[in-house]
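Kindly go through one protein, given below as sequence and tokens. The question is how this chain folds according to its tokens.

***
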Amino acid sequence: MKSIICLTALLAFALAAPVQPNSVAQDGDQELAAFSYAVDLFDAATTSAFTCLRQSGYATVFLRVYKPDGSGQVDQVGIANIRSAYNANMGVEIYHTPSPQANKAGGTQFDETYTALRNAGINVRTVWLQVTSPINWGSNQQFNINLISQFLSRAKTYNVNVGIYTNWYDWSQITGSWTGWTSSQLVSLWYWNAYGATPQAESPANFQDFRAFGGWTQASVKQFGLQSNVCGLNFNRNAYQTGTYETKALAFDASKSDEITVGNVFV
């Protein structure tokens, strides 16, 4: 019985402990690739909570700025979170969860997000479009493709980069493994792979499980863990290769204006 209690205590400590730098060998690559960590969340958080996350080893946060409620609407909690995370000196990325079955074009949904951010004094370099949960999208794959294509096209007119948050299964079910985006613009990939919706069911915090799909041959970010809780916040855990993006992000931040800029970590 004592050994069971000790094992339980050690597991609880491991799940709550700060993340540590992680190096893994990539398939076919003799060099070691170090990874940094990010979280994604949509609940309200304070600057002190984000500071706690940063001190716990998380360099970047992905914040939801559009939610699928009703016919889709700007997430004001996410916009407030941007300022709090920025003040905590975290890298800030934003993601847009669309309302895929609403009578609202993808371009219109992008406009709503972009306008709300600019009205709040926030510059946008990149926005990530969530394409997950096939049950929320409906079975008309061409309709789904049209919404995504409209979103991409509208972002391009504003000179805003777009990334897609999905995985091979979701992309296949929602779009039929569409690759049409490759002919018009560069789209980064944030993919997810977790073995279950608990911290104990995380996949490895590296890209060794990545498989090419939908026109992507590499990924920028991986969501490897779901529903963690640290610093009083519920979030998902992500990994990305250290050095690939961070130097650029820091160089861009060195010339800050009075406005906040989001989406500069992965460009």
Notes: The CA atoms of residues 91 and 257 lie 16 Å apart.
